[in-house]
Amino acid sequence: LTFPPGFKFGAATAAYQVEGAWNVSDKGESIWDHYSHGPRSMILNHDTGDVACDSYNNWERDIEMAAELGLHYYRFSISWPRLLPKGFDYKISEDGKAYYNKLIDGLLQKGIEPMITLYHFDLPQSLQDLGGWTNPLIADWFADYARVVFSLFGDRVKMWLTINEPIVICDMTYKAGYNPPAIYSPYFGAYLCNKYILMAHAKAWRVYDEEFKAKYHGKVSLAQHLLWIEPATDSDKDLADIAMQASAGRYSHPIFSEEGGWPPALEKAVEELSKKRGLLKSVLPPFTQEEIELVKGTHDFYGFNLYTSRLIKAKTEDTVDRWPQTDAADLGAVLLEANEWGKSSVNWLSVHPEAIRRQLNWLKKNYGDLEYVITENGMATSSGLQDEDRVNYYKKYLAQVLLAIKEDVINVTHYTAWSLMDNFEWMYGYSVRFGLYEVDYSDPQRKRTPRQSAKYYANVIKSNSFDVPS
Ligand code: BGC
């Protein structure tokens, strides 16, 4: 029941969710700063990330926690506007640089590898004002930013993720009009974002590959958000296949498939949808052959976050659609949850451990025998230190990961728990808790205390097995 020798366990956070210190020194404003301070904020309780876990000041405690767990690596993200206050690369913040240097060096001193995400939702507001992810030029702005990060920290950081969850960025911002900058543009904005976010990833990957790889020997990919979708009945099988191509495939096929470009099933579905909406041509921006080549193959591993699953079913008159702003709705389908799946304390996350193994098999079937890195997995519970539900979640999902490795011979090399500590859970503010460590938000120091799950995870890492006491 043990993981292969050399298998790595980590935990993750993201800059806006933990750092706080939103306006120290010369830090620029991010879209989350801007939105959470504005009159249009729909964040629960009008919470903001102004202080969050105050990791900007508590970084030593964060490293200590990572060491207490025995993590092999700690995944965190860099705040683009903290490092480049103007968004563009002509001005680097000394303060931002110093903060990330302290964090990286502190981790390495304890033998913990840093795994860095360049972008985890906090775009500089200055670039949003110029169109953000719908402006084709963002691919170059992002590549310039990536070059700065690689040149400052590449000597010590060997695992990189360019963008966290393109699907969440494009869909929650433009399709649902929900996450900042909350621009409701489901017909156009979401599709422009699809293309330019992929171009941005690809250009950043190529910057590393061409300018840094020979010197630093690191690996670069991105963190996909995967929602495992199964047919509700036998007659929904085709729908489930298309839905997987429209979600996982939309952001993976261009990068990881042999032919590159959009998945054909997605092209067809969007073509039909565009016609139905009375548009003159498909809203999916085409890739030129040159762009297909530029994006194709821009990976050193496949990184993904997985939390939950859905059933898909053709829409009938009496079906209630809990998730109307999704690709499934565009396909004339609804998403459901199976009654037997377990519940968490957030409405979107149900517990279905087999999903992670099935998802890994789907990936291997579609993209081949790659190195697979699980960049996030975890569950929300209410507050309190006795989080038996979270322990069970980790135990069951880890058991499935091990089956995928041993029985299905899939090369999974890393598993990352989300999250090291409770943090600002985006539109849910501080009401939702994902941490191995509980954070006391009423304490000005934001005291962190290990939960039962932290003890369990430390034992997992120590014994290299999921079947351990907590
Ligand atoms: C995101 C995290 C988030 C987590 C739980 C992931 O989609 O990368 O930032 O906190 O899910 O919702």
Automatic annotation (TrEMBL):
Highest taxon of the lineage: Eukaryota
Ranges that cross the membrane: none
Quaternary structure and partners: Homodimer.
Family: Belongs to the glycosyl hydrolase 1 family.
Protein name as it appears in the record: Lactase-phlorizin hydrolase-like
Encoding gene per record: LOC113493918
Residues shown, of full length: 476 to 945 of 946
